[in-house]
Amino acid sequence: MKREIFERLVKWKNKPDGSRNVLMLKGARQVGKTWLLKELGEKCFEDYVYINLERYADTLTIFEETLDPHIIIEQLGLIFEKKIIPGKTLIILDEIQSVPRALLLLKFFKEEAPEYHVCCAGSLLGVRLHSGISYPTGCLETIYIRPLSFKEFLIASGKEENVKFIETASLEKLESMSFEHLEYLLREYMFIGGMPAAVQTWLDTKDYVEVKNILANIEDDYRSDFSKYTDAITSKKITEVWENISKQLSKENKKFIFGLIRNSARAKDYSLAI
């Protein structure tokens, strides 16, 4: 699945060691951050080491024992049985919010081991709520990853001719033509959305019910995140706001009214949840 943002990742890879920061992909869950980093490793490097910090418990003690990037690289090579070679091996730290000290380590990768290509991804909400952890300002190149655009959706659907038409047709030509076909594709995109899993399911099955199930699963994953970094009361309020957003903003009056969440609710009651 082609992503236009991939070109920026390639440019990052080709920067000189001294001017290349650690790469940080930010974005909502399931927009394709992990896929993009693995794709970069497969297409632009001889090899890559992928570490999901939520799953690989064996790696967690490394970050607790030292912040020396060379020792950590050596240990990662032993754990994953790979030789990590500067310029040839991409190091991917996924779900970095799970290990706050790993975020702190990024500063030392930049300052003490700039010859290595290091990238990371994950929800920064959890990281920002961990007290005592310094954010590595000035050491990161941050790229925001979003769902597929309409153009990317068309390309994934094999409709490159429509993309070329949209990009090259003159205004006079556009004004004189009917757009029923493009309008149909746009409505299709608006229903399916740009989440990669939903788009891939649509391409594989052409089944709207299956797509709806995928989107429901993604929403469930978001809901489960609400309780990860907050207390029970705040998590409940986050859920209340979440359930009210679409209902309220679908009305003609596009103003979010806290009193519609529950009687006598006020903005200050939900400021932290928002």
What is the H level of CATH, i.e. the homologous superfamily of the largest domain? P-loop containing nucleotide triphosphate hydrolases
> Using DSSP, what is the number of strands?
5
The ordered string of helix (H) and strand (E) elements is: HEHEHHEHEHEHHHHHHHH
Determine the mean pLDDT: 88
The CATH class of the largest domain: Alpha Beta
- Let me know the largest β-sheet: 5 strands, parallel
Q: Cα distance, first to last residue?
A: 33 Å
* Alpha-beta classification: alpha/beta
- Total helical elements: 14
Helix content: 40-55%
User: What's the architecture of the largest domain, going by CATH?
Assistant: 3-Layer(aba) Sandwich
- So what's the overall shape? globular
The rounded Rg comes to: 22 Å
Q: Strand order across the biggest sheet?
A: 2-3-4-1-5
**Strand portion:** 5-15%
| Low-confidence sequence ranges | none
- Reported by name, the CATH topology of the largest domain is Rossmann fold
What's the structural domain tally? 3
Break the fold down into its secondary structure elements and pairings.
Layout: H1 6-13, E1 22-26, H2 33-44, E2 47-52, H3 60-65, H4 69-80, E3 89-94, H5 100-112, E4 117-121, H6 124-128, E5 140-144, H7 150-156, H8 160-168, H9 171-175, H10 180-192, H11 196-205, H12 208-226, H13 232-249, H14 267-270
Parallel strand pairs: 1-4, 1-5, 2-3, 3-4
Helix pairs in contact: 1-2, 11-12
